[in-house]
Amino acid sequence: MTVQESAMNTVGSASRADASMKPSTLNSKNLGLAVLALMLVVGLAVLYAKTETIDLRGPNEIASVLRELKEIDKLWDVDVLRLSVESDIKVALPPDRREGAAQALDALAGAAITTGSPALNTDLDELVLEIRNKGRLVEKFKIEHAAAQQALAGLRSHTHSLANQARQFNVRSPRMDAAIEQLNMNAPIYFTLGEEDRYNAVYTALTELDAAASRFPQVLRETATLATDAGRTLLDRKITQMRTIEQIGRVTSGPRLDNMALLFSQELEAGIRDKEVYRVVLITYAAALLILVAYMGIKIRAANVGLEQRVKERTSELSSALKQLKESEAQLIQSEKLSSLGQMVAGVAHEINTPLAYVKNSLGSVAEKLSEIGSAVDDTARLLALLQAGAGANPEELNQQFGKVTERISRLKKQKVLPELESLIEDGEYGTTQMSEIVGNLKDFSRLDRSKATQFDLNDGLNSTLGMAKHQLKSATVEKHLGEIPTVFCSPSQINQVFLNLINNAAEALDRGRGKIVIHSRKHADGVAVDIQDNGSGIPSDVLPKIFDPFFTTKDIGKGTGLGLSISYKIIKQHGGRIEVDSKPGQGTRFTVILPLKPPVEPVAVAQG
């Protein structure tokens, strides 16, 4: 009996034993205990939900919005008060705060909807109306204030001009002088305080000025008219401004904001108190539940000691059987991998021989040329020594050495030694590059435990795999039609193993290795497809459904384990893809590997060797 059969028998017997331990029915007592336990758990869940900590981020944001609205409301009051006592027209008007108030109101309305807070929803509509009304009145007050301020400045300017013109035209009018004096004294005070006595004084002075100006020259009358118009505008604007202040004073936005903030704070405190009460109840309930669970646990444990022991025994048997199955699968997969490597060894050795010959021949030729170059260097060094000796050198010896060096250099040039050395070095580098690629491909393929996943171009994998299988494909014609495809997230070493298995199978299916293999890569829906097609003997229809079964093979005994296609199928499946096969006996077979751009889960090694 094999290891697999023994393990499967163990698993089957353990399963039957587990089935024999299951009770056929539940008695009424156990059913009652189950219902009670369910009710207790539901009660615990309800209490836990009641005691969940209040998220204070929302309440803090609401409190911040309320503070912002109160600050805007106070700033409006400050703006009105400051402008009421300000007479300098050079002082800039306060900014329009209505936009900030509107944003804060929108945030408050949104919080009222999301939280459903009674404190926020009780007086929200009235508060919105009051704040908008106050903002409108404040802006109206600023307009009236600016107009009154401008009128006051015009009155001062025109009365001053009138006085200068009177002196220029030598006009004497005590009545006009008294009116101007009254205006200059009472108009600023009236602009600031708005007192009724000052109003009467300004009005009387304007009447006097108007009456006195009727006897003036035309220029003075026009200036007086401008002054009286400015004065009357001041009176009208100030009256409107004071009425606006009264309307602002009747707005109840401030008290409403204070009341809403107070109600919201009380509502939050009440919620926190409720949570604390539920926490006390939860602690008491949990303690009682723990005591009950401990009591029931002791009874159940005492009743099931024997059953636990039997479960442990069966679990141990199952674990042992599963471990044996995994070890057997890993051994078989590694055997299949080593078998593939063994088939490639002869081909790889042959492929290495060719570039190795490049390197060997190149190094031999380089060694020959180096001796000549070394002699030329030695002669040149002796010539340099004679030249450095200067007048002390023998002229005849110097001429002989110069001629000797010239002759060697000329011979080296005629023989084109340096270009030949460059060519030999290039041949040697080409050979070492070829050997490095072959050894690198073999090293990558032989790493059985590699499971690193990355973005991979399947065209690169096909090219490297064809390089590894070059010896098996010597007598076959290989056509490549590699399309423009996106990269695939996969384990490159595992995918290359699949390609190698399929290409080797295609080569073995050809008539004595002679025939054609066509490899085609293309986009497919939301993934990539690779076709490997041969014109070999094909697969019979009765054999086709079994080709992916483990240990199934049509090869002679000792020539295959029957795991190549099974391993390939498992690798592609774990990558979220599939393998399709179409074969016609006598015409050939086409295997199609379809992979998604990204598998549902990161691919892992099929087995650890």
Description of the molecule:
- It is built from 16 helices and seven strands.
- It has four domains: about 55-145 and about 250-270; about 150-250; about 340-435; about 450-595, Heat Shock Protein 90 (2-Layer Sandwich).
- It is of the alpha+beta class and about 600 residues long.
- Strands 2-4-5-7-6 form a five-stranded mixed beta sheet, with helices on one face.
- The longest helix is centred in the middle third of the chain and has 85 residues, at about 305-390.
- It has helices spanning about 5-20, 30-50, 55-85, 100-115, 120, 125-170, 175-195, 195-215, 220-250, 255-305, 305-390, 395-415, 415-445, 460-470, 490-510, 565-575; strands at about 455, 475-480, 490, 515-525, 525-535, 580-585, 590-595.
- The chain starts with a helix and ends in a 13-residue tail after the last strand.
Question: How many β strands by DSSP?
Answer: 7
Q: How would you name the oligomeric state of the polypeptide chains in this document? A: single chain
Strand content: 5-15%
Main β sheet profile: 5 strands, mixed
Mean pLDDT: 78
